[in-house]
Amino acid sequence: MKNSEVETHGRRAVIELREKIISGEFPGGMRLFEVAMAEKLDISRTPVREALSRLVEEGLLDRLPNGGFTVRRFGYADVVDSIELRGVMEGTAARLAAERGVAPDGLARINDIVARLDDCFGASRDDVDFDVYSDLNEAFHHELAGLCGSNVILREVERASALPFASPSAFIPNKTDIAAFLRSLWLAQEQHRQIVNAIAAREGARAEAIAREHARTARHNLEYIFNQKPELLQQLPGLALIHR
Q: CB count, 10 Å around CB of 41?
Protein backbone atom coordinates (compact mmCIF):
# COMPACT_ATOMS: atom_id res chain seq x y z
CA MET A 1 0.00 0.00 0.00
CA LYS A 2 1.32 3.45 -0.90
CA ASN A 3 2.17 5.87 1.89
CA SER A 4 -0.62 8.23 0.78
CA GLU A 5 -3.16 5.43 1.02
CA VAL A 6 -1.91 4.42 4.45
CA GLU A 7 -2.23 8.02 5.64
CA THR A 8 -5.77 8.33 4.20
CA HIS A 9 -6.91 5.07 5.75
CA GLY A 10 -5.17 5.98 8.98
CA ARG A 11 -7.07 9.26 9.24
CA ARG A 12 -10.35 7.48 8.54
CA ALA A 13 -9.54 4.86 11.16
CA VAL A 14 -8.76 7.52 13.77
CA ILE A 15 -12.02 9.37 13.07
CA GLU A 16 -14.19 6.26 13.08
CA LEU A 17 -12.61 4.72 16.17
CA ARG A 18 -12.75 8.03 18.04
CA GLU A 19 -16.45 8.42 17.21
CA LYS A 20 -17.21 4.88 18.39
CA ILE A 21 -15.47 5.56 21.70
CA ILE A 22 -17.02 8.98 22.31
CA SER A 23 -20.49 7.74 21.34
CA GLY A 24 -20.23 4.90 23.83
CA GLU A 25 -20.41 2.18 21.17
CA PHE A 26 -17.02 1.07 22.51
CA PRO A 27 -17.57 1.39 26.28
CA GLY A 28 -14.90 2.02 28.89
CA GLY A 29 -12.89 -1.10 29.63
CA MET A 30 -13.58 -2.73 26.27
CA ARG A 31 -10.56 -4.46 24.75
CA LEU A 32 -9.64 -3.59 21.16
CA PHE A 33 -7.39 -5.69 18.97
CA GLU A 34 -5.64 -4.67 15.80
CA VAL A 35 -6.85 -7.58 13.63
CA ALA A 36 -10.46 -7.30 14.74
CA MET A 37 -10.52 -3.54 14.22
CA ALA A 38 -8.99 -3.89 10.75
CA GLU A 39 -11.74 -6.33 9.82
CA LYS A 40 -14.44 -4.11 11.33
CA LEU A 41 -13.23 -1.03 9.43
CA ASP A 42 -12.38 -3.05 6.31
CA ILE A 43 -8.85 -1.67 6.00
CA SER A 44 -5.38 -3.14 6.47
CA ARG A 45 -3.68 -3.57 9.83
CA THR A 46 -0.99 -0.92 9.31
CA PRO A 47 -3.27 2.17 9.37
CA VAL A 48 -5.33 0.61 12.17
CA ARG A 49 -2.16 0.09 14.22
CA GLU A 50 -1.23 3.75 13.72
CA ALA A 51 -4.77 4.88 14.53
CA LEU A 52 -4.83 2.92 17.79
CA SER A 53 -1.46 4.40 18.76
CA ARG A 54 -2.78 7.88 17.97
CA LEU A 55 -5.77 7.32 20.24
CA VAL A 56 -3.39 6.23 23.01
CA GLU A 57 -1.66 9.62 22.62
CA GLU A 58 -5.03 11.37 22.78
CA GLY A 59 -5.78 9.55 26.01
CA LEU A 60 -8.79 7.62 24.77
CA LEU A 61 -7.07 4.22 24.87
CA ASP A 62 -4.60 2.43 27.14
CA ARG A 63 -2.05 0.04 25.67
CA LEU A 64 -2.03 -3.41 27.28
CA PRO A 65 1.38 -4.89 28.18
CA ASN A 66 0.52 -8.23 26.53
CA GLY A 67 -0.87 -6.70 23.34
CA GLY A 68 -4.07 -4.96 22.41
CA PHE A 69 -5.71 -1.86 23.84
CA THR A 70 -8.53 -0.96 26.22
CA VAL A 71 -10.92 1.95 26.09
CA ARG A 72 -10.15 4.21 29.00
CA ARG A 73 -12.56 4.97 31.79
CA PHE A 74 -12.35 8.59 32.89
CA GLY A 75 -12.70 9.80 36.42
CA TYR A 76 -14.73 12.95 37.00
CA ALA A 77 -11.66 14.63 38.51
CA ASP A 78 -9.62 13.76 35.41
CA VAL A 79 -12.08 15.62 33.19
CA VAL A 80 -12.10 18.65 35.50
CA ASP A 81 -8.28 18.70 35.48
CA SER A 82 -8.23 18.52 31.66
CA ILE A 83 -10.59 21.51 31.43
CA GLU A 84 -8.49 23.46 33.93
CA LEU A 85 -5.31 22.70 31.98
CA ARG A 86 -6.88 23.98 28.77
CA GLY A 87 -7.88 27.14 30.62
CA VAL A 88 -4.30 27.69 31.79
CA MET A 89 -2.91 27.22 28.27
CA GLU A 90 -5.53 29.42 26.58
CA GLY A 91 -5.07 32.04 29.26
CA THR A 92 -1.34 32.07 28.54
CA ALA A 93 -2.03 32.38 24.81
CA ALA A 94 -4.38 35.32 25.40
CA ARG A 95 -1.93 37.11 27.73
CA LEU A 96 0.99 36.74 25.35
CA ALA A 97 -1.13 37.96 22.43
CA ALA A 98 -2.06 41.07 24.41
CA GLU A 99 1.51 41.71 25.58
CA ARG A 100 3.10 41.15 22.19
CA GLY A 101 0.40 42.82 20.15
CA VAL A 102 -1.64 41.37 17.30
CA ALA A 103 -1.56 42.47 13.68
CA PRO A 104 -4.77 44.11 12.38
CA ASP A 105 -5.56 41.17 10.10
CA GLY A 106 -5.37 38.78 13.07
CA LEU A 107 -7.80 40.88 15.08
CA ALA A 108 -10.05 41.18 12.04
CA ARG A 109 -10.22 37.40 11.64
CA ILE A 110 -11.14 36.69 15.24
CA ASN A 111 -13.61 39.59 15.36
CA ASP A 112 -15.27 38.17 12.25
CA ILE A 113 -15.70 34.84 14.03
CA VAL A 114 -17.24 36.61 17.02
CA ALA A 115 -19.69 38.40 14.70
CA ARG A 116 -20.64 35.11 13.04
CA LEU A 117 -21.15 33.56 16.48
CA ASP A 118 -23.57 36.38 17.24
CA ASP A 119 -25.59 35.31 14.20
CA CYS A 120 -26.10 31.88 15.77
CA PHE A 121 -28.49 33.46 18.26
CA GLY A 122 -31.95 34.09 16.89
CA ALA A 123 -34.46 36.79 17.73
CA SER A 124 -35.71 34.73 20.65
CA ARG A 125 -33.33 33.99 23.52
CA ASP A 126 -34.15 30.30 23.27
CA ASP A 127 -33.27 30.10 19.56
CA VAL A 128 -29.68 28.97 18.98
CA ASP A 129 -28.09 27.16 16.05
CA PHE A 130 -26.02 24.74 18.11
CA ASP A 131 -24.32 23.02 15.17
CA VAL A 132 -23.00 26.24 13.63
CA TYR A 133 -22.14 27.63 17.07
CA SER A 134 -20.08 24.54 17.88
CA ASP A 135 -18.06 24.80 14.65
CA LEU A 136 -17.44 28.53 15.05
CA ASN A 137 -16.57 28.08 18.71
CA GLU A 138 -13.84 25.64 17.71
CA ALA A 139 -12.64 28.15 15.09
CA PHE A 140 -12.53 30.94 17.70
CA HIS A 141 -10.39 28.92 20.07
CA HIS A 142 -8.04 27.83 17.31
CA GLU A 143 -7.61 31.45 16.19
CA LEU A 144 -7.09 32.59 19.79
CA ALA A 145 -4.31 30.03 20.27
CA GLY A 146 -2.42 31.42 17.28
CA LEU A 147 -2.78 35.15 17.97
CA CYS A 148 0.47 35.45 19.93
CA GLY A 149 2.43 34.12 16.95
CA SER A 150 4.06 31.25 18.83
CA ASN A 151 4.01 27.78 17.32
CA VAL A 152 4.99 26.41 20.73
CA ILE A 153 1.95 27.97 22.41
CA LEU A 154 -0.34 26.94 19.54
CA ARG A 155 0.86 23.35 19.76
CA GLU A 156 0.45 23.19 23.54
CA VAL A 157 -3.05 24.72 23.47
CA GLU A 158 -4.08 22.19 20.82
CA ARG A 159 -2.53 19.39 22.87
CA ALA A 160 -4.48 20.47 25.96
CA SER A 161 -7.69 20.83 23.92
CA ALA A 162 -7.25 17.29 22.59
CA LEU A 163 -7.41 15.80 26.07
CA PRO A 164 -10.60 13.78 26.54
CA PHE A 165 -13.58 16.08 27.13
CA ALA A 166 -11.36 19.20 27.27
CA SER A 167 -12.35 20.50 23.83
CA PRO A 168 -13.97 23.97 23.91
CA SER A 169 -17.15 22.44 22.44
CA ALA A 170 -17.09 19.19 24.43
CA PHE A 171 -20.24 19.98 26.40
CA ILE A 172 -22.17 22.02 23.85
CA PRO A 173 -25.30 19.91 23.29
CA ASN A 174 -27.80 19.87 20.48
CA LYS A 175 -31.31 20.90 21.41
CA THR A 176 -31.28 18.53 24.38
CA ASP A 177 -32.60 20.42 27.42
CA ILE A 178 -31.90 23.71 25.65
CA ALA A 179 -33.07 25.92 28.52
CA ALA A 180 -30.43 24.51 30.86
CA PHE A 181 -27.51 25.41 28.59
CA LEU A 182 -28.73 28.61 26.98
CA ARG A 183 -27.50 30.88 29.75
CA SER A 184 -23.98 29.44 29.55
CA LEU A 185 -23.87 30.01 25.77
CA TRP A 186 -24.83 33.67 26.10
CA LEU A 187 -22.21 34.10 28.85
CA ALA A 188 -19.58 32.30 26.76
CA GLN A 189 -20.25 34.56 23.79
CA GLU A 190 -19.89 37.66 25.95
CA GLN A 191 -16.58 36.28 27.21
CA HIS A 192 -15.44 35.79 23.60
CA ARG A 193 -15.94 39.52 23.04
CA GLN A 194 -14.22 40.46 26.30
CA ILE A 195 -11.17 38.32 25.54
CA VAL A 196 -10.73 39.91 22.12
CA ASN A 197 -11.28 43.41 23.52
CA ALA A 198 -8.68 42.82 26.25
CA ILE A 199 -6.15 41.57 23.70
CA ALA A 200 -6.77 44.55 21.43
CA ALA A 201 -6.35 46.91 24.41
CA ARG A 202 -3.02 45.19 25.33
CA GLU A 203 -4.43 44.18 28.75
CA GLY A 204 -2.58 40.92 29.27
CA ALA A 205 -3.65 40.08 32.82
CA ARG A 206 -7.31 40.76 32.01
CA ALA A 207 -7.19 38.71 28.82
CA GLU A 208 -5.64 35.79 30.70
CA ALA A 209 -8.16 35.93 33.55
CA ILE A 210 -11.18 36.01 31.23
CA ALA A 211 -9.82 33.19 29.06
CA ARG A 212 -9.25 31.00 32.12
CA GLU A 213 -12.73 31.74 33.44
CA HIS A 214 -14.16 31.10 29.99
CA ALA A 215 -12.77 27.55 30.00
CA ARG A 216 -14.68 26.91 33.21
CA THR A 217 -17.95 27.21 31.29
CA ALA A 218 -17.38 23.60 30.25
CA ARG A 219 -16.78 22.66 33.88
CA HIS A 220 -20.00 24.35 34.99
CA ASN A 221 -21.95 22.44 32.33
CA LEU A 222 -20.33 19.20 33.44
CA GLU A 223 -21.22 19.88 37.07
CA TYR A 224 -24.79 20.72 36.09
CA ILE A 225 -25.21 17.45 34.21
CA PHE A 226 -23.81 15.27 36.97
CA ASN A 227 -25.35 17.09 39.94
CA GLN A 228 -28.72 18.28 38.63
CA LYS A 229 -29.56 16.49 35.38
CA PRO A 230 -27.99 12.99 35.49
CA GLU A 231 -30.59 11.79 32.97
CA LEU A 232 -28.62 13.70 30.31
CA LEU A 233 -25.68 11.34 30.77
CA GLN A 234 -27.29 8.89 28.35
CA GLN A 235 -28.16 11.62 25.83
CA LEU A 236 -24.86 13.45 25.39
CA PRO A 237 -22.01 11.66 23.55
CA GLY A 238 -19.14 10.33 25.60
CA LEU A 239 -20.41 11.10 29.09
CA ALA A 240 -21.01 7.41 29.73
CA LEU A 241 -17.20 7.05 29.84
CA ILE A 242 -16.99 9.30 32.93
CA HIS A 243 -17.42 7.88 36.42
CA ARG A 244 -17.36 9.56 39.81
A: 17
Question: Max CA-CA distance within the chain?
Answer: 58
Judged by DSSP in three states, 25 sits in: coil
Task: State pLDDT tens for residues 143-168.
Answer: 999 999 999 999 999 888 877 678 88
Q: Look at residue 42 and give its three-state secondary structure.
A: coil
Q: Going by C-beta distance under 8 Å and a sequence separation of 6 or more, which residues neighbour residue 218?
A: 83, 165, 166, 168, 170, 171
- Pairing status of strand 61-63 against strand 69-71: antiparallel
Distance CA 185, CA 37 (A): 38
Distance set, CA 157 to CA 60, 90, 130, 165 (Å): 18, 6, 24, 14
Separation between Cα atoms, residue 90 and residue 95, nearest integer Å: 9
What is the spatial distance between Cα 99 and Cα 150, in angstroms, rounded to a whole number? Answer: 13
Coil/strand/helix, residue 63: strand
Q: What is the pLDDT of residues 72-109, one digit of tens each?
A: 888 888 889 989 999 999 999 999 999 999 999 999 99
Question: Sheet containing 31-32: which strands, arranged edge to edge?
Answer: 31-32, 69-71, 61-63
Residues 182-237: tens digit of each pLDDT: 778 889 999 999 999 999 999 999 999 999 999 998 888 888 888 887 777 666 66
Q: Calculate the alpha carbon distances from 60 to 19, 112, 206 in Å.
A: 11, 34, 34
Q: For 53, what's the count of Cα atoms within 13 Å in the CB-facing half-sphere? A: 7
> Number of H helices and number of E strands within the chain?
9, 5
